[in-house]
């Protein structure tokens, strides 16, 4: 690797609901190998406001222009926090890309006929979980069984204020964006991903893969992030 690290963007990775930042390990390793500074934000997923605040603290620490990457609900965080002046570009990995006033709750309110419905259990004390027995099929169908079981058993409760948190000003209206569609996703229908990506004016790529494509195919995800970082640098 002969590129000086200080010429590269800083990559900030934002996880989604039900999981923590450890799922980014494979993507992190790929990006670090290529000389990028990488920060994995451990958001509490208690509310959108809390998660944006955590993310903005991570952005503030970066020394280079930031590529902000969000998976799933992390896309909502990216859409709001991406207005920070340090952020040069946004990357959505099979993620929600809301417009002003939209939240995950509003975006999933009316699923199209035949679309997969995530196995979200009724809220307990204001927090949501996925049915552990259905976790792999819905979230991580192409992840090995042992890892998928660990992901199911180590779920992070997802707060209703995070689900319901609405975006004020979408950063994709003023920042360039890239979107990776996972064609075999059973959490966010691929058609919905394509619609959100097109609405955001994102550069779009599609790969086969489950909602956990960042775990099952970190090479493809890291490559897409690097493509965004390269475009920003040019």
Automatic annotation (TrEMBL):
Coiled coil: none annotated. GO terms for molecular function: hydrolase activity. Pfam families: Abhydrolase_6 (PF12697). The keyword Transferase does not apply. InterPro entries: AB_hydrolase_1 (IPR000073), AB_hydrolase_fold (IPR029058), Sec-Metab_Biosynth_Hydrolase (IPR052897). Residues 11-223 form the AB hydrolase-1 domain. It comes from the Bacteria. Keywords: Hydrolase. The keyword Hydrolase applies. PANTHER family: AB HYDROLASE-1 DOMAIN-CONTAINING PROTEIN-RELATED, ESTERASE_LIPASE_THIOESTERASE DOMAIN-CONTAINING PROTEIN. This is Alpha/beta hydrolase.
């Amino acid at each position: 690797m002969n590129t000086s690290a200080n010429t590269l963007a800083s990559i900030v990775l934002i996880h989604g609901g039900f999981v923590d930042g450890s799922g980014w390990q494979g993507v992190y390793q790929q990006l670090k190998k290529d000389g990028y500074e990488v920060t994995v934000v451990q958001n509490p997923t208690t509310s959108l406001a809390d998660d944006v605040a955590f993310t903005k603290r991570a952005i503030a620490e970066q020394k280079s222009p930031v590529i902000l990457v969000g998976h799933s609900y992390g896309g909502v965080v990216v859409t709001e926090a991406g207005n920070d002046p340090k952020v040069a570009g946004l990357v959505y990995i099979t993620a929600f890309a809301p417009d002003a006033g939209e939240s995950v709750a509003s975006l999933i309110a009316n699923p199209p006929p035949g679309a997969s419905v995530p196995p979200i259990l009724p809220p307990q004390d204001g927090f949501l979980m996925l049915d552990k027995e259905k976790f792999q099929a819905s979230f991580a169908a192409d992840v090995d069984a042992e890892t998928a079981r660990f992901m199911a058993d180590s779920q992070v409760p997802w707060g209703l204020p995070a689900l319901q948190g609405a975006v004020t000003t979408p950063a994709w209206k003023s920042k360039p964006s890239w979107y990776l569609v996972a064609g075999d996703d059973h959490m966010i229908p691929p058609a919905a991903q394509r619609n959100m990506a097109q609405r955001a004016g994102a550069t779009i790529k599609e790969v086969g893969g489950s909602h956990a494509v960042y775990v099952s195919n970190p090479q493809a995800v890291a490559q897409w992030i690097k493509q965004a970082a390269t475009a920003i640098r040019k």
